Amino acid sequence: MFFRNQDAISGKMARAYLKMNEQNIELFYAKAIEATIEKNKVDVPILGKTNTSKRSAGWSGSGTLTIYYVTSLFRKLMEEYVKTGKDFWFDLMIVNEDPVSSAGKQTVVLKNCNLDSVIIAKFDASSDDMLEEELPFTFDDVEIIDQFNPIEGA
């Protein structure tokens, strides 16, 4: 059996949404997102063994949202934080759905996202590339609403 090339998911066929204060915003200006859950592990020394075993003891979630530099939304939220100390949280929903793939659709919601940093101003007169910005963030919960279908080889 072999993996069918048409079942590979095109990264261009994704959608992303931000939900904050009961408002849903489609992030059509998003370029990329990558979110990771990392397990926190602790040492478990065991009498009679020369190695040190590990055991999971929690987790942390972090990621980076790369967007084209075309919105002031995140700068305004950070400005409010700077001036008032009022922090902000939001949910990110990422939908991967390539109509060619038999894998179908996966929808993941990253909950209680909080930005680590925001570029407050930017330009680059020496580049032909479009301006973009990376928004590193953390999250503290996750929900997989839709999961990919099992795929079969050819």
Structural write-up:
- With 154 residues, this protein is mainly beta.
- It has one domain (11-94, 114-140).
- Helix content is 8%, strand content 50%.
- The chain contains 1 helix and 8 strands, in the order ββββαββββ.
- The protein has one helix spanning 73-84; strands at residues 14-20, 23-26, 30-45, 52-68, 90-97, 105-115, 132-139, 141-146.
- Strands 1, 2, 3, 4, 5, 6, 7 and 8 form an 8-stranded antiparallel beta sheet that branches.
- A hairpin with a 7-residue loop joins strand 5 and strand 6 (105-115).
- The longest helix has 12 residues, at 73-84.
- It is globular.
Structural domain tally: 1
Helix-strand sequence = EEEEHEEEE
Bin the strand percentage: over 45%
What is the terminal-to-terminal distance? 5 Å
Number of strands: 8
Number of H- or I-type helical stretches: 1
What is the share of helical residues? under 10%
Overall pLDDT score = 96
What class do helices, strands and sheet pairing give? mainly beta
Unreliable stretches (pLDDT < 50, length at least 5) are none
- What does the overall shape look like? globular
User: For the report, how would you describe the main beta sheet?
Assistant: 8 strands, antiparallel
Our Rg estimate from Cα atoms comes to 20 Å
